Amino acid sequence: MGLTRREFSRLGALGAMAGFVPDLRASAQGSERKVGYCVIGLGRIADHFMRGVKQGSTSQITGLVSGHRDKAERIAAQYGVPTSSIYSYEDMDRMRENKSIDAVYVALPNSMHAEYTIRSAKAGKHVLCEKPMCVSVSEAREMIAACKEANVKLMIAYRLHYEPTTLKAIKMIQDGLLGKIQAIDSANGFNIAPGEWRSTKKLGGGGPLMDVGIYSLNATRYLTGEEPEKFTAVASTIDRDGRFDTTEENTAWTMRFPSGVLASCNTTYGAAMPGYYKVFGSKGWLEVDSFGYQNLRLRANYTPEGKNSSATTLDETNPEPDPKQFERQADHFTQCILQNKTPKTPGEEGLRDMQHIQSIYRAAGISFD
Amino acid sequence: MGLTRREFSRLGALGAMAGFVPDLRASAQGSERKVGYCVIGLGRIADHFMRGVKQGSTSQITGLVSGHRDKAERIAAQYGVPTSSIYSYEDMDRMRENKSIDAVYVALPNSMHAEYTIRSAKAGKHVLCEKPMCVSVSEAREMIAACKEANVKLMIAYRLHYEPTTLKAIKMIQDGLLGKIQAIDSANGFNIAPGEWRSTKKLGGGGPLMDVGIYSLNATRYLTGEEPEKFTAVASTIDRDGRFDTTEENTAWTMRFPSGVLASCNTTYGAAMPGYYKVFGSKGWLEVDSFGYQNLRLRANYTPEGKNSSATTLDETNPEPDPKQFERQADHFTQCILQNKTPKTPGEEGLRDMQHIQSIYRAAGISFD
After folding, report:
1. Per the omega criterion (within 30 degrees of 0), is the bond before A304 cis?
2. B249: which chain A residues are within 8 Å (Cβ-Cβ)?
3. Which of B189, B260, B264 is facing A265, going by the closest CB pair?
4. Are both B35 and B151 inside the same structural domain?
C-alpha cells in the first residue's frame, strides 16, 4: 500500500527487534504520508513541538485546536495545515472524520489534560499528552481507560526519556560505573510571573511540584529504575503577592526507594532554581545540569577499579539545539503508532508520577486527589 | 605589662568595635608569649590544626595529649613542645599546673568530646572543641555549663564561619543580591573505609549526619541566619558489609525555617558525595562547592535590578591553601581569649546543631538523646 519493500523491511526489523509485530494497517497508513498530529493548545510548548515535528522526517502537523482562530490560521499557514483542519475547543470532536489526523498533542494547562485526552481518544486519535499527565490520580486512570477503550495509544510527553545526555546518564548508572547508588539530589524551579496559569490550583492543579518539581521526581525514577516507597515533604509560601493565593510556593521532599537509595528534592515558583540532578554512588558521582530544551551538560567523576585506579572524569554537553528533543519525542510516538508499539512513556508512567505527587502532597499536609 | 601601647590600643579598639571591653588580665597574659594550645587527640584533623597554628602569628602549640607517647614525642619535637607538656588521657588533668597552656583543642572521636571538654574546663583551660560538639543534647548542655562554671571560653570548631568564601556567600545573601531566599539544597558525604570510628554509634554517636551532614545543616543556618523549625527525614542502609552495624548509612532530610525557606539535604557514608550548597533566591542563585579545607568555589548568577537588567555572574575560588582555615579559626579563638570576647561559634552554636540533629534523627524514626 505505498510502503516500499525497503521501508517495510525496516519497519518489520525494528518491530521484531523490539519484540513487536508491526501493525500492517497502521504501517500502511503511515507510509506515503507522514503521521499527522493535531496540536491542542497553541502556547509556548506547542511552538517547540511543532518546530520539532517540522524538522523531523516522520511526522507532520495536520490539525490545530485553539480558542483563537486568528492565531490558529497564522500557524496553519506556517505549517501547511488546511483551514478546514482548524478546530475550536467546542467542535474539536469533529476531528474524528479527519483522516489526516492520526494523533493529537495535548499542550493545554494541566487541569484540561484529562478532558481533552479523553475527547481525543473518543474521536479515535492517539494521544501524546504533556506532563503532568493531569491533576489527580483518578483522572490519570480515566485517561488510561479511555485510550484503552478507544484502542488508541497514550504517551506522556516526558521528552527527556528520549534525550541522549539523559540516556547516557541512565546507562552509566546501569553499567555500574558509579558503583552502588546511595543518594540523589535534584531541584527544579523558577520565579513565576504574576498571572501565569501554572501557579493556580484551578489550572495548574497544584504548585511547582506539578510542572517543574515533576522533573526531579521523574529523574529519580529513571535514574534508579525504581518506584519510591516512602515520602516526606514540607511546603511553604513566602510571597503574599497574589501569585500563590491557591497553591504553595515551595516544596522540599525526600523519597526512599526499595533499594535504600534516598532522594532529596526541592522545587519553587519563587526563585531562580536551575534544574539539575546529582547521583552519588560508591565509586563516584554524576551530575546533569538543566532539564531544559537544550544544552544538557553531563559531568561525572568515578573510579572504576577500586581505590588505586585513577579517576575518570567526564564533562560533555549535548550539542543538539532546540527543538531536537521535541523532534525525538514525536518520532518515538510516530514509530509506536506505525509499529503498534507501546510508548516508552505510556499513560502508566504519568499515572505513577501522579501517585507519587499525591504521596508528596499528603506528606506535606496538602490534600491532593 | 609587656603589651606595647600600640598593641594595647589595637586590642582596645577591636574590643570596643565589637562591643566588648577587653579583659586586661587576659590581654596581658597573651602579650609577650603567644596563646598556647594543648592538642587532645593527634589524628588527621589535629595535624591540620597544628600546622595552621604554626603558620599563624598569634598562637602556638604548647601541649599534647595522646595515648601514643612515641607519636606525641615526635610531634612535640616538631612543634617545640617540651616533653614535660605531653600528657596521657589518664594524667591530662595535671595540665592545670601548666601555665604555658591557655586552651585545649579537642580533636577526639565525637563521643569523647564531652568528657575531655569538661575535664579541660575543670583544669582551667579554654576549650576549642571539634564538631559535632558531642553526641547528645544533654552532653552539649553539660559542656556549656562546665565551661561557664570554670569561667573558661568554649568555642566549637566550625572553621567555615571564618572562611572568606563562606563569609562572602553569607554577605551576598544579607545584602539582598539574590533577592528573597526561597530554598537551599546541600549535601555532604563520602564512602567510608571499613574500621573507621566515624561510622560507629559508640564513637561517632550516629551516622554521616554527625560528622559530614552537620556541614549542610550548619550551612543552612549561617546562610539564612535562622533556626529550622520543622524537620522531615528518611534514613537507609544499603551496604551490609560491617561498616553500618550500629548506624545508618544514608540520611536525607528537609527543614523549614521561620521565614518559609525550605532546605533539602543529603548525607552518606556510602558514596562519593562532594560537599556543596545551592541557595535559590527571587533574583538569582549562588553555589559553593566543597566544605573542604581549601579551594572553596563560589559561583553565582543574579539579576540585581529587575528583569531588564543583565545578569551578574560570579565564579571565584578562595586561593588560600590548607591549613589557612585552621589558622583563621585558631586566631579567632586566640583573639577571644585575649580580648575576653565570646567566640562567633560558641558552645551554644554547637548545642543548636545537636538539637537539630536530634530533630532530624527523630523525624527519621531513629532514637537520639
Report:
1. no
2. 182, 260
3. B264
4. yes
Looking at the structure, do residues B150 and B170 belong to the same domain, yes or no? no
A232·B230 Cβ contact <8 A: no
> Is the pLDDT reported for residue A312 higher than 60?
yes
Catalytic residues of A: 131, 215
The answer to whether the CB atoms of B187 and A278 lie below 8 A apart is yes
DSSP code per residue over B56-104: SSSEEEEEEE-S-HHHHHHHHHHHT--GGGEE-TTTGGGGGG-TT--EE
pLDDT-based confidence at B306, cuts 50/70/90? low
Q: Are A97 and A9 in a shared domain? A: no
Same domain? A119 vs A213: no
Query: What is the interface pTM, i.e. ipTM, of the complex?
Result: 0.91
Please list every residue in chain A whose beta carbon sits closer than 8 Å to the beta carbon of residue B302.
Answer: 272
Does A299 reside within a domain?
Answer: yes
Count of domains forming chain B: 2
CATH of the domain at A108: 3.40.50.720
Mean pLDDT of A115-119: 98
For all residues of chain B together, what is the average pLDDT?
92
Residues B173 and B288 in one domain: yes
Q: pLDDT digits over B28-71, tens only? A: 444 556 999 999 999 999 999 999 999 999 999 999 999 999 99
Among the listed residues A195, A205, A290, A196, the one whose alpha carbon sits nearest the alpha carbon of residue A248: A205
- Same domain as A299, residue A170: yes
For CA atoms B39, B41, B47, B49, the dihedral sign is: negative
The residue segments making up the domain with residue A20 are: 1-30
* Contact between A182 and B250 using a beta-carbon 8 Å cutoff: yes
CA distances to A169, A172, A285, B188, B287 from A314, in Å: 11, 11, 10, 21, 20
Each residue's pLDDT tens digit, A213-272: 999 999 999 999 999 999 999 999 999 999 999 999 999 999 999 999 999 999 999 999
A25 and A37: one domain? no
B3: in domain: no
Kindly identify which residue of chain B lies nearest to residue A253, measuring between CA atoms: B254
A187 within 8 A of A216, measured Cβ to Cβ: yes
Which of B159, B184, B203 terminates a domain? The answer is B159
Domain-embedded: residue A107: yes
C-alpha cell at A113: 489534560
Q: Which three three-digit cell numbers place residue B344?
A: 562567633
Residue A130: pLDDT over 80: yes
Please identify, among B317, B332, B349, the residue that sits at the C-terminal boundary of a domain: B317
**Whether B210 and B113 share a structural domain:** no
Whether residue A19 has pLDDT greater than 50? no
Nearest CB among A237, A250, A264 relative to B252 is that of A264
Cα angle value A176/A179/A180 (rounded, 5°):
110
Nearest to B234 among A180, A232, A259 (CB): A232
A255 and B234 in contact by Cβ < 8 A? yes
